[in-house]
Write a sequence for this structure.
């Protein structure tokens, strides 16, 4: 039976805190199971968040891989308290397990779970457990493990480009996607602008996982991306692709009335 969580109540439940303790060597994203090559249609479900860039990476890849009828997806509420992410009226109940809180999925997998409750989470219906909450591995599996079930719209993780995709990620992840060092971020955006003046996408003429990973940060960067003409044209070029546009809800990650650049402006590249 489906249930909905009660409204967010910081006073009653406190604020959610990511449990990172110096004495706990376990990874923050504790579940890292992989989808087998013999993946079955309808077996896997993604719990995602519209606001979350890591979730959007996965939902973009799902669409580009042509998996809309193979791997289902649903969305948790945009707000949380100390109980973690929850299912509320805004996006409806959990369609798979009827959980009110995403925590229940983690508890069903590891009783007494005391780790980070995150999205995206990949649920295995047959096993009745969380298979993975490692967003990078989930994206790779969606791109590569379902070819016998669906024809991809775009092959985003081709074998011949995997090393370069991961080299770019090793640079852009810390410099841009996490962006903790403003100077490194600024320098990376300048270098990306130069790179994209010579090619349509990061690796040439085809969209890859590298573009997916970068886009979700650019679309959340406001006018900062529009300051770099080639990068801005590239970002809008991606946004024009349905998989990117249809998984973007600006209202979930920008403040009300925010001044946004015109993502629908025509682009010729």
């Amino acid at each position: 039976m489906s249930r909905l969580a009660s409204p967010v109540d910081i006073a009653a439940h406190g604020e959610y805190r990511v449990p990172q303790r110096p004495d706990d060597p376990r990874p923050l994203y504790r579940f890292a199971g992989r989808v087998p090559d013999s993946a079955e249609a309808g077996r896997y479900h993604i719990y995602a968040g519209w606001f979350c860039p890591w979730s959007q990476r996965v939902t973009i890849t799902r669409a580009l891989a042509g998996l809309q009828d193979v791997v289902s997806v649903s969305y948790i509420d945009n707000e949380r308290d100390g109980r973690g992410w929850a299912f509320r009226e805004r996006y409806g109940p959990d369609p798979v397990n009827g959980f009110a809180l995403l925590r229940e999925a983690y508890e069903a997998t590891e009783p007494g779970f005391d780790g980070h409750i995150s999205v995206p989470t990949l649920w295995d219906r047959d096993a009745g457990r969380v298979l993975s909450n490692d967003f990078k591995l989930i994206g790779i599996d969606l791109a590569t493990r379902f070819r016998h079930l669906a024809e991809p719209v775009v092959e985003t993780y081709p074998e011949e480009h995997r090393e370069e995709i991961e080299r770019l990620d090793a640079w852009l992840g810390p410099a841009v996607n996490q962006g903790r060092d403003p100077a490194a971020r600024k320098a990376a955006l300048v270098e990306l602008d130069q790179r994209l003046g010579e090619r349509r996408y990061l690796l040439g003429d085809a969209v890859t996982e590298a573009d997916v990973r970068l886009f979700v940060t650019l679309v959340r960067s406001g006018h900062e991306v529009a300051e770099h003409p080639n990068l801005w044209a590239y970002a809008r070029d991606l946004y024009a692709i349905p998989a990117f546009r249809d998984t973007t809800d600006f209202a979930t990650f920008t403040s009300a009335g925010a001044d946004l650049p015109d993502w629908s402006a025509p682009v010729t590249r």
Notes: The chain is about 35% helix and 5% strand. The first helix runs from residue 10 to 13.
